[in-house]
Amino acid sequence: MQLELKEVAKRLKAAKKIIVTAHVIPDGDAVGSSLALYRMLRALGKDVRVFIDDTIRKNLETLPDFDHIEQSTDGEKLEADLVVILDTQLDRIGGVRQATEGLPLLNIDHHVTNQGKGVDLYLDADAAATCEIIFELSKVLKVKLDRETATCLYTGIATDTGFFNYANTRPSTLRAAAELLEAGVEPHKVSEQIEKKPLADVVGECEALKTLKIFFEGKAAGLFIDEELSKKIESTEGFIDLIRIIDGVEVAFLLHCKAENFCRVSMRSKTVDVSKIASTLGGGGHIRAAGCSINAPFDEAKMIITHAIGEAINNAQ
Ligand code: AMP
Ligand code: MN
Ligand code: MN
Asked: Could you tell which of 52, 157, 255, 266 is best to mutate to test the pocket of ligand 1, judged by most ligand atoms within 8 Å of the CB?
C-alpha cells in the first residue's frame, strides 16, 4: 500500500515502541536518516531502537547518537509496535528482517525500484535522499530540528547528491539544506569528515585506476577490484567518481570482488537508466546511480556486467 506523508506521521505518533532500520552496506543517507528519525522520535517521547545489520564506514561514526546504533540483532526476536525501514526495500535489511518478522512494517524510501512488496510504503522517487523525506516529515510531525538532527539529515542529503552535484538535486533539496544550515550545520565540517580517507585507500585508489578499461567506443568505463587488490583497500568509496567524469563516458562502473563467487557492482550514468540494469541482475537503485551483487567468479561477473551495460547503451541509441 502507498501512503501519504500525513499517514506516515499518524502511524509514527500512534506507535510507542519503534524500531528503525536501513540497508546493509550502509551509506550516509541510510545512517543519517536512521539517526535523524531516531532523534525525532525520541523527542516525541517514543521508545526507539536503531538496527543496521552491517559494518558502517568509519567516517559516519561521528554522527550524533551513532553509539545508539545496534549493528546486530544477535538472532534475538525483536518486539515493537512499528518497524520503519529507511532508504531501501524490505529485502536489503539483513538479519533485521527475520528478527522483526510479523511486526507492522512502514517503509520510507526514494528508490524508484522499490515496489513496496510486503510493506506499507511512502515512496518519493523525486526526493534526492531519504533524509530529504525525513526533513519533510519533521515538518508534518512538528518536531523542531536541533543542530545534531540537522547534521544527520544534511549528511544524508549531501552524500546522496554528491554534495549537490547530481541530477537528483532539486530546488527543495537546496531549500532543505539551507534550513539545515540555519539549524546550525557546518557544511565544511561535514564534507571534511565524509571525504577524509586513510592513506592506504588513496594509494589503493591509484592501484584501482590502473585497472581502468574503456568499452563501447568510449561510452563505458570500468574499474576492476579483484580479490588481491581488494585485500589492500578498506573502502572503495568514491572510486567510481574518478572515472564517471571521463569525457564521453555515459556509464561508469566498478566491479568489486568481495568474496569468492561474490562481486558487488556500482554504476553511475549520465543517460542510460542503470536502475534497470541493476534490477535485471537482482539489485536496484536510481536512474543515474544503481548497484547489484553478482554471485559468480570475478571474471564471469566482469563479462555479465560488461555485457548488460553494452546492451543498455545499444538500446538507448
Ligand atoms: P552504490 O553504487 O553502492 O553507491 O549504490 C548506488 C545506488 O544503488 C544506491 O542508491 C543504492 O542504495 C542502490 N543499490 C546498490 N546496490 C543495490 C542492491 N543490491 N539492491 C538494491 N539497490 C542497490
Ligand atoms: Mn542508501
Ligand atoms: Mn538514499
From this structure: 266
pLDDT by residue (tens digit) across 118-139? 999 999 999 999 999 999 999 9
Residues with Cβ within 6 A of ligand 1?
23, 92, 111, 266, 283-286, 289-293
CA of 286, nearest ligand number: 1
Angle at the Cα of 12 from the Cα atoms of 183 and 150, rounded to 5 degrees = 15
CATH number listed for the domain at residues 5-195: 3.90.1640.10
Q: Which fold has domain 199-316?
A: Diaminopimelate Epimerase; Chain A, domain 1 (3.10.310)
Q: In what order do the strands lie in the sheet with 17-22?
A: 69-70, 47-51, 17-22, 82-86, 105-109, 120-123
State the amino acid at position 159 in one-letter form: T
Which ligand is located closest to the Cα atom of residue 269? 1
Q: What kind and span of H or E run contains 20?
A: strand 17-22
Which ligand 1 atom is at minimum distance from the Cα of 30? 12
Q: What is the pTM of this model?
A: 0.94
Name the phi and psi angles at 200, rounded to 5: -60, -35
